[in-house]
Write a structure and sequence with these properties.
The chain is α/β, with parallel strands linked by helices. The protein has 9 helices and 8 strands. Strands 3-2-1-4-5-8-7-6 form an 8-stranded mixed sheet, sandwiched between helices. Strand 1, helix 1 and strand 2 form a beta-alpha-beta unit. The longest helix is centred in the N-terminal third of the chain and has 13 residues.
């Protein structure tokens, strides 16, 4: 099976996350796409505004009607900071012989991958799909990455992709521009403004029922 690994804080999950994931799933013919909420992000000074159980439930509600998506609790269940290498190692240990994994991340995050823990090993364990951010698709290329990353890949002009020395592949993929952000949604909620059509109605109902992202209650 071809399995996508799509991680994020999802604080909260919104239509931008979901549409991006669906475009990648379809374009790369992924058999399954695992949506993996982060437990404790190592690169963020502040933790998630909503608790892990709330974020898990919002993801579950958002993806339950898509048979191609599956919720994974691997990072939330693990104690301490959520390092991507630990997650990839977990799936590498449990994979079946013919399974292949595709790590999905945005271009901004990929540009900073040289600061990740054991990032060179991650390239050996799974393929990478680097997706565009709204407004920056034309600047996506390996040549703009740190030298330490560029040296690990060579370009295959016939297949129009980059190959790692271990045999894994690196793809750059242009998404439909959807300029929705979780921080904007949280800001709207704090100000009592509408968030309708920014995320699934089930998630909106859950947020309102739980009183998430509203002043002092944020983070409970």
């Amino acid at each position: 099976m071809k399995i996508g690994l799509f991680g994020g804080t999802f604080d909260p999950i919104h239509w931008g996350h979901l549409r991006n994931a669906e475009e990648v799933r379809e374009a790369f013919s992924l058999d399954r796409l695992l949506v993996i909420p982060t437990g404790e992000p190592p690169h963020k000074k502040r933790g998630a505004a909503a608790s892990a159980p709330d974020r898990l439930e919002m993801v579950r509600l958002a993806i339950r009607k898509n048979p191609g998506f599956t919720l994974s609790t691997v990072e939330v269940s693990r104690r301490g900071k959520s390092y991507s290498i630990d997650t990839v190692r977990y799936f590498a240990r449990t994979r079946r012989a013919k399974d292949s994994f595709y790590f999905i991340l945005g271009y901004d995050a990929f540009a900073d991958i040289g600061s990740w823990r054991d990032f060179r090993e991650i390239f050996e364990l799974c393929n990478f799909i680097v997706t565009s951010r709204p407004g920056n698709a034309n600047s996506m290329s390996l040549e703009r990455m740190p030298v330490a990353v560029r040296r690990l890949f060579c370009y295959d002009p016939k297949r129009k992709l980059y190959r790692h020395e271990s045999g894994t592949k690196l793809f750059f993929f242009k998404l439909t521009d959807i300029a929705i952000s979780a921080s904007d949604i949280r800001g709207r909620l704090r100000k009592g403004r509408s968030i309708r059509y920014l995320l699934p109605s089930e998630v909106e109902t859950y947020i309102k029922r739980r009183g998430l992202y509203r002043g002092r209650r944020e983070g409970r």
